[in-house]
Automatic annotation (TrEMBL), chains A, D:
CC annotations in GO: plasma membrane
TM helices/strands, residue ranges: 6-25, 32-49, 55-74, 86-107, 127-148
Name used for this protein in its record: Threonine/serine exporter
Family: Belongs to the ThrE exporter (TC 2.A.79) family.
Organism: Alginatibacterium sediminis
UniProt keyword terms in alphabetical order: Cell inner membrane, Cell membrane, Membrane, Transmembrane, Transmembrane helix
Pfam families per the UniProt record, alphabetical: ThrE_2
GO BP terms in the entry: succinate transport
Span of domain Threonine/Serine exporter ThrE: 11-145
Mode of membrane association: Multi-pass membrane protein
Automatic annotation (TrEMBL), chains B, C:
GO molecular function ontology, one term from the record: transmembrane transporter activity
Family: Belongs to the ThrE exporter (TC 2.A.79) family.
Taxonomic lineage of the native organism: Bacteria, Pseudomonadati, Pseudomonadota, Gammaproteobacteria, Alteromonadales
Entry protein name: Threonine/serine exporter
UniProt organism field: Alginatibacterium sediminis
Pfam families xref list: ThrE
Length: 154, 263, 263, 154
């Protein structure tokens, strides 16, 4: 039950950034709901998968592959290109804090001089940022390179 | 793909079709479509309008199209300027191409429709509000309480106003990202200074997330994976530069206020 | 930009103009102008000579130009070889374009003038002397005394002679940088071995500074910032390779002599 | 007074490399004086700004923006493209020693095996090199992206 509540919270608060970024990308109005759904599904799925003990990168990959597949379905149904929904949907999973900590770490290394701890923090956060980003973007591309190799989706 | 009925195309018509193909590709690339989509969609238009084959070379900021018809080939190139991501335009262009493929639009109609596509934009205050709420939601997802939520909303909404204002005046995007990050960090450093909320550093981290270059990054990887290495590297480079711009803005604000987030 | 008076251009004339445009762009790019300058200057020439619009696609080592006039388009492409940085040529080309824009030169005169531009070079011994003095000045700025100054002058002057000699024989620039750095480090390691001056290591650091790839680096960032990501990355890659070449030369000399600068 | 003398020394010894590199770039004869002035102004300005407590990266940025702006003026006056003066003028500020120390550090890491101190030196020098280079080149581009967004300078 507690897990369920936290998943609902997760879903709600990741639907909002999905819509927010969809507005920045000027996604057509009638697709906004799909972006919100996509964002909610992706992030809460990732939380669920992580809850079962999978690490954040692999969980991100699972979530983004799922969104990629849902995107194929929506894309064929509404006859619009896939990135219209998928990119906004994965935005809530972008590793913002990791990236921020990496940058702050680099500044600290430069200003305050080298220290092993700061270096460790930069490396750990930097690698996490990189791996999660790769999982997200590669996951989105997977359906089209696996299934739709020879013909366009729409 | 549908096989278009064979028809005779004059030299002028061929020129017109090639021009439509190059314009389609240009519009798609200008508004943030990935390279494979650009290539596929515009070559489909050319075939639908009766060319024998369409060959497209994409670089990071230009498109070169050759249209072949019965051994005659016409080549043209266009410079592509980045006009900001606009999925509305991408959808509209795609729809026109689909209609042309079903032979519902001829050359003149396609031209007409393409010219009539305007870059639809959402009301700016709606965007400001939703983007503020988005960053606030990020801070909630990262574990912030409601004070952090409110502070993040304020900082990122102001930052978004700055970003829109600068984009409206056609300022350079890297510069724009730097200034926006500077404003966001400046406002959110207040939270750290007055120790508001359970984790005031979260405000600083979450309020700059409106600058995540999501489209360039994801398009970059998509291009890479699908073999468009050159445009992929260009997009990746642009995403990196935008991040660097934002990082410089954060650095400047931190140097001025002396407030630092973590570590 | 001045608005050229309307005039009739035949198909042959259009071809001639496009050829002049592509040659202008080629010369600028060959001699180290940044991409925006190449694009802007050559498209201005096309407009000044009467084309309706000029579209230019730049890649790292080719230029593709389409010149449009009343719906007719002519496209041509040229391979661009790096001929070394020469600001004299860039200035001359720019001047011709400015004159053409003021309608003081017609197509034939522009052609004539463009062909007459020769790649002016300074007397090589003057360059050797001044470059030696430059590196010596660097050592002074870094805090070296006059012995260090003199040693740096000798090492870098000799290195510059080697660099010119290799460049004159059209050797590969990366190889050239390696050999030059090797010579500079070999000579300057004498200062460390015999412990000359207050900070003999400065001689080693300053004498290789004649190899700083200033133009590629600054053009790279300039291209990036102005949206020419592809050419920017190519320039950045070239600058990195030149640095790597120089670093290999330094490494080889240090391995041979066993003398090392700092750490 | 001491500061003034050191600034004069600075200006003189950075005018020389500006001319030296201008010769390598084959800058036309009548522009050589401008390159020398540019080099002298840039480096002594940077020294002055650093003297007031600003770090070397930001001081480099200030100096290169100044040169970029002066370049705009000269460029319009003499009708030649801006890089003709500006690149040679910032050459004296190129972080030569930092770059050199970074390279030597990398060699040492390779030959002598990893050690935390050498790594620290590589990182600190490498970051300094990178930041100063970025400040210099970005600073030069700034006037044209801020002021001359829509039209060419000359």
């Amino acid at each position: 039950m507690e897990l369920f509540l936290s998943l609902v919270d997760d879903a709600f608060f990741s639907a909002i950034p999905a819509i927010g970024f969809a507005l920045i990308f000027n996604v057509p109005k009638r697709m906004l709901v799909l972006c919100a759904c996509g964002g909610a599904i992706a992030h809460s799925l990732r939380t669920l998968v992580m809850h079962s003990g999978v690490s954040i990168e692999w969980a991100s990959l699972v979530a983004s592959v799922t969104i990629g597949l849902i995107g194929v379905y929506w894309s064929r149904r509404y006859l619009v290109p896939r990135p219209v929904f998928t990119v906004a949907s994965v935005i809530p999973m972008i590793p913002g804090t990791f990236a921020f900590k990496t940058i702050i770490g680099v500044f600290t290394l430069h200003d305050g001089g080298y220290s092993a701890e700061v270096m460790a923090s930069v490396l750990e956060n930097g690698l996490a940022t990189l791996f999660i980003l790769m999982a997200l973007s590669f996951g989105l591309a997977l359906p089209s390179i696996l299934i739709y190799r020879f013909r366009p989706i729409v | 793909m549908s096989t278009p009925s064979p028809r005779i195309i004059s030299n002028e018509q061929q020129t017109d079709i090639v021009r439509l193909v190059v314009q389609t590709g240009m519009r798609l690339q200008q508004h943030g479509a990935e390279s494979k989509l650009v290539e596929q969609t515009s070559s489909r238009l050319g075939l639908a309008l009766g060319l024998d084959s369409v060959e497209i070379a994409l670089t990071a900021n230009a498109i070169i199209v050759t249209g072949l018809y019965q051994g005659r080939c016409i080549t043209t190139t266009r410079r592509v300027f980045d006009r900001g991501i606009n999925m509305h335009v991408v959808c509209e262009v795609q729809r026109i191409v689909l209609l042309a493929e079903k032979q519902l639009l001829d050359c003149d109609l396609v031209k007409d429709r393409l010219e009539r596509i305007s870059a639809f934009k959402y009301n700016r205050w709606l965007v400001v509000f939703m983007v503020g709420l988005s960053c606030a939601s990020f801070s909630h997802l990262f574990g912030g309480d409601w004070t952090v939520f409110a502070m993040t909303f304020i900082a990122s909404a102001f930052a978004m106003i700055v970003r829109q204002e600068l984009a409206h005046r056609h300022h350079n995007p890297i510069f724009n990202f730097g200034v926006t990050a500077f404003v966001a960090t400046l406002i959110s450093s207040l939270a750290v200074r007055f120790n508001l909320g359970n984790q005031p550093e979260l405000v600083m981290a979450a309020s700059v997330l409106l600058l995540v270059p999501g489209f360039p990054l994801i398009n970059a990887v998509s291009d890479f994976v699908k073999g468009h290495v050159n445009t992929g590297m260009a997009r990746w480079g642009m995403a990196t530069l935008l991040c660097l711009g934002a990082a410089s803005g954060i650095a400047l604000a931190m140097a001025l206020t002396g407030v630092r987030g973590w570590v």
